[in-house]
C-alpha cells in the first residue's frame, strides 16, 4: 500500500474507541467502562499517545468516583503533552506537526475536564487554573459545533466557579446538560 494510502486509512484503534464511546452515549456505562479498560490493557501505558489520550479522555466519563475520573483525565493530559512534544514516532503522533495539531485540538477539552474534576472535588484554585488553560487553548478550536460546545461549557464552568466564590459554596448550575448524578459537565466528544 502506498504511503499516502496508509495515512488515509482509518485508525482501527480510534475506530474501536469511537464504537465504545457510542455504546456509552447510548447509556451502557458499565459495559463501556469494561470495554474501554480492555482497550487500555491492549494499548498499554506506552502505546500511541493519541490512542492513550483519547481512550483515557473517554474512560474518565465512565468513572463513578470523582477521584478516579480525575486520574483518567490526568492520564489523558499526560498523553497529549507527549503528543505535543513530538516524542512519538508512529501513527498520528508522528513526532511532527500532526501530533502537535492533534494535541492542540485536545487541550481545551482536556483542561476543561480537569477544571470540572477539581471543582467536583472542591479544589477551586486548581479548577480555576485549568479553566484558564482551557480558555487559552480554546483559541485553537474551529467555530464549529464541537468548538462552540467546548466554549459554552467553559463559560458555564466559569460562571459556576465565580458564583462559588473562594469558599466554594454554590447551588447547582441552572443551565447546561445534566448528568444523572445532578452535576453538569463539558461535552465529551471525539475531537
Please describe the structure with a list of short key phrases separated by commas or semicolons.
single chain, 191 residues, mainly alpha, 8 helices, disordered N terminus, disordered C terminus
In brief:
This protein has about 190 residues and is an all-alpha fold. It has eight helices and no strands.
Folded structure, characterized:
With 191 residues, the protein is mainly α. Helices cover 66% and strands 0% of the residues. It has helices at 3-8, 12-25, 29-43, 49-61, 66-85, 97-120, 124-137, 145-164.
Topology record:
Elements: H1 3-8, H2 12-25, H3 29-43, H4 49-61, H5 66-85, H6 97-120, H7 124-137, H8 145-164
Beta-strand content:
under 5%
Largest sheet: none
Distance between the termini: 27 Å
The helical percent reads: 55-70%
Structural category: mainly alpha
What's the count of strands? 0
| Poorly predicted spans | 1-8, 89-95, 168-191
| N-to-C order of helices and strands | HHHHHHHH
CA radius of gyration: 17 Å
Global shape: globular
Q: Counting H and I runs of at least 4 residues, what is the number of helices?
A: 8
Mean pLDDT: 82
Amino acid at each position: 500500500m502506498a504511503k499516502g494510502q496508509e495515512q488515509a486509512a482509518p485508525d482501527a484503534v480510534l475506530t474501536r474507541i469511537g464504537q465504545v464511546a457510542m455504546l456509552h452515549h447510548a447509556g451502557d456505562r458499565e459495559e463501556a467502562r469494561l470495554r474501554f479498560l480492555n482497550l487500555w490493557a491492549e494499548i498499554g501505558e506506552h502505546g500511541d499517545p493519541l490512542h492513550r489520550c483519547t481512550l483515557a479522555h473517554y474512560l474518565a466519563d465512565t468513572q463513578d468516583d470523582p477521584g478516579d475520573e480525575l486520574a483518567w483525565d490526568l492520564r489523558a493530559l499526560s498523553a497529549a503533552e507527549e503528543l505535543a512534544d513530538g516524542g512519538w514516532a508512529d501513527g498520528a503522533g508522528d513526532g511532527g506537526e500532526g501530533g502537535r495539531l492533534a494535541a492542540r485540538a485536545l487541550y481545551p477539552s482536556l483542561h476543561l475536564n480537569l477544571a470540572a474534576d477539581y471543582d467536583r472535588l472542591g479544589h477551586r484554585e486548581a479548577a480555576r487554573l485549568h479553566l484558564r488553560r482551557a480558555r487559552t487553548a480554546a483559541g485553537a478550536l474551529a467555530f464549529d459545533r464541537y468548538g462552540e460546545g467546548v466554549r459554552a461549557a467553559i463559560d458555564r464552568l466559569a460562571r459556576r466557579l465565580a458564583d462559588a466564590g473562594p469558599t466554594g459554596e454554590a447551588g447547582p448550575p441552572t443551565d447546561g446538560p445534566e448528568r444523572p448524578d445532578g452535576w453538569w459537565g463539558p461535552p465529551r466528544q471525539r475531537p
